[in-house]
Structures are given as structure tokens and as C-alpha cells.
């Protein structure tokens, strides 16, 4: 009996022990206070700074070429004798013989006379084709005779041009006359006999004197003779004149 009671007590103890192990008690579990997790700091989004646009240095603009004022047109349509002469004289001043050749008579060419007296037999005549490049020619031509000595004038065109064509600043300094001789010396002027006024016009450029010390005896004249072709004109003569002994 005693043994039975002991067994019963032992069994009860075992049952209670088993129950205590199987039923978890909230209180039996250790209440570990949870450490407060540090809150991750939210990264502050930095506002993107606007990048300063690089200042582009302006490239220096190329200087625009300054257009030189064009020379006033000297010719009408058709040109007058003075207008035609102005164009030819400007070309003679610069040595532009291509322009002079463009005005030359296509058949007669241009006769060059070193003095007022025009000698159709001895004065040199150049065709339009010859005149185009005559300034660069090394060929010496016979242009007539020197006044006073009678010695033959044998020169290249470039030398003749310097002595018997544009030997003074006719373009800027001369008095201008139409069909009228302004310079008169001892040499006979037979221009209207060789170039009749009914069919020709001439424009004269006259300078009273180049050097004031000479008292006017170094005057110069240049006469440009044009044949009338209806309303148009063609250059047929370049006559140089000066004081002669």
C-alpha cells in the first residue's frame, strides 16, 4: 500500500514535470529588451547643383574685307568722246594696254605720234592684237624722229610710253578740251588734216608746265583721237605734243 502511494506520487510528479516542459510560458522566456536599432539616417538627397555652363569665349570674328568704293562709271551707253577718252587715259596711266586695245579700231589700229605733226608714213601703227601685250615686249620699234636733232626714235613700247605717251600726270592735273587744241608750239599741228573732224573727235589733255622753274616751256599735251562709228567710237590715234626748239 505504501508502495502504491509512493508510485502514485512519483507518477504525478513526472506528469507535472512533463507539462511544465511542454507548455511554454511567456513569462519563462527571458524578456530581452530589444536594443533599439539605430534608425538608418535617410540620406539627404542633395539637390544636384546646376553645373555652370562653361563660358565659351567668342572667337574673334574675322574682319570683313572692306569693299573699296568702286570707281564711278565714266561711260554712258553709247559713251561720249570725253567718256571714252577718260577710260583710255586711265588705262594709259596704269599701263593697262589690254583695255586700250579693246578701244582700238579693229581694222586701222592705233597710230602713235610723238609730236603734233602726224606723219602717216613714219609714225608707228599698232594693231589691236599687238597692243594687248606690247608693254612687256622687248622689241624696239621706230616711232619717228626726235624734234631738232632728226635722230630716229627707236625704243621699246614701254620706253616710248614713258617718254611720249604718259610723261606727265594727265589724268589728275590736265586741262581738258574737246576738239580743241590747247597746247601750241612751233611744230605744225595737222591733226584735222589726217583725222577729219567730220568723222573724228579728239580729246586733248594739256598741262601748262611740269616744273615751275622752267616757266612753262615744259608744257605737255596728249590727244586721243576717236573715229566715229555711228553712235560709237574707236581709238585710232594717240598724239603727244610738247615744246620743241
UniProtKB/TrEMBL annotation:
Keywords: Signal. Residues 1-20 form the signal peptide. Residues 43-74 have a biased composition (Acidic residues). It comes from Paenibacillus lemnae. Residues 25-42 have a biased composition (Low complexity). Residues 19-80 are annotated as: Disordered. This is Lipoprotein.
